[in-house]
UniProtKB/TrEMBL annotation:
Name by which UniProt lists this protein: Variant surface glycoprotein 1125.215
SUPFAM superfamilies in the cross-refs: Variant surface glycoprotein (N-terminal domain)
InterPro entries attached to this UniProt entry: Variant_surf_glycoprt_trypan_C
Organism from which the protein derives: Trypanosoma brucei
Residue ranges, compositional bias (Basic and acidic residues): 420-454
Domain Trypanosome variant surface glycoprotein C-terminal: 426-507
Keyword Membrane: yes
Record GO cellular component, one term: plasma membrane
Amino acid sequence: MWWQTKNSQIAFVTTLFLTVVAIHHTTAANLKVADTINSVCDEAASSISVSTTFLHKIDTATQQAKNLQKSALKWRLAAAADTNKDQAKAKLALALLLRQRAMRTQAAISAASGDLQAAAAVLQARAAALLTAHKLQPKAAPTKVSAANEDASNNFGTTGAKCTIQMTQTVAAGTCTLDKIADQSIGEEETPSPAKASIKATPDAYFIPQKLTVAALAAGTAGTNSNLNNADPATKDCYNGGSGRSDRTHALGADVTYTPTSSHTISAVAIGTAEDSKLNCGAQPDLEARSSGSLAAVKWAVCAGLTTKVDSEPDITAKTGSDLMQQADILPIAEQLLFSKDELGAIPSDQRTQKIKDKTQEVYGKGPNDFKTNYLEALTTKLSYNLGKQNVNEDINTIVKKTEAEVILSHFEGINYNQKQDKSTEKESSDKAPNKEETAKKSDKGDDKKDGDNKAATANCTSHSTQDACTKGQNCKWENNACKDSSILVTKKFALSVVSAAFVALLF
């Protein structure tokens, strides 16, 4: 039977070993910076540092969104100043690409800022609570500073006495160094994972006031106030008679002792639960929990803040048309701006994506320097414009830094608009201009009168001596017993209408 007992022992030891190994592998390790925390001051410093990184994520992404908007403005200016219609469209496509990236970055900020700001607020509240508690934490029993006797007959049913002892609380000395942990610079905390999802923290009991123990002492007839007319400078007792506590005749006093009633040991705590190889941080605590800086809120804050990302989009980094066509988000824009409706309609659906890529590469350049020469250098080419009464000659990179950048853009866009309007007017005029054959027909019919013909008509009118003959004449009118040419009045009205139109144009 001895071998059975031995086998049982081996089985027990093996099971115990495997259990220990399993526990070791299922317990997440501490995060890199959190693992260096060994004091309340360390945790306060870490809380401040980590909360700053949460807000820095928002600030960095916000700045990137602004940079993208500024880059979009650069390409809008380049497009507005370009007289080449096709290149202007291509530059406008780059502006739209950057504008969309700025909008997506802003959307990512909006989605993440709620948790990041809440997590930062939790850790800031935690740091404030830790530092306050650290300053108020008892180091030892209060120090008695004075004692005074007083009649207390009204407090009891018979003669009584009171000894009032004043004390000051003894608290931990020194302040925390908040830019270091264990005298070392604070590094950047790593992102938690199921394998690393623990921090070291102070228990909530640290914020609960510690208990003090008071022991009341009495000797002789301490209930008679007249027997307690002295105060011991050392023990702060009220007394009468004797040279010390050991031989007091009458005495009344109290001693206060302090012993920590709860553990303040910093220990490792899990900040999330592993689910499907991912870390679940749980729900955001309510406002009261977040404001208190409790350990439960801290665990959520560290987990959520470190795992929440703000996906900011990049600026255009392409150096060639080939690089640009590989960026998926420009293809829908290129499809709309670089193709005509007829061109798109002629492309088979299964070839559309590749054709758009090919067109993108063609427009922005296949050569190693085409994109730089035809597009990037446009940002450093100087533009001439009027700003108030001052004529300015600056490149686009300089213009976008000005507060008037949008106004300057409007200037160039206005020039383009006016040029388009002029071309449209010219086309309409050419479409309406009569051809030679029509002009000849009008001349034959007498519809198109020359200046000489008008003068002849005037002369003919004055030759009529009677009203009847005058009214039958062309463009003649009987007035003040004379026959006159009525076409002069029409000409005056026409001239007046032209002047009126010009005046209205000046007003607007």
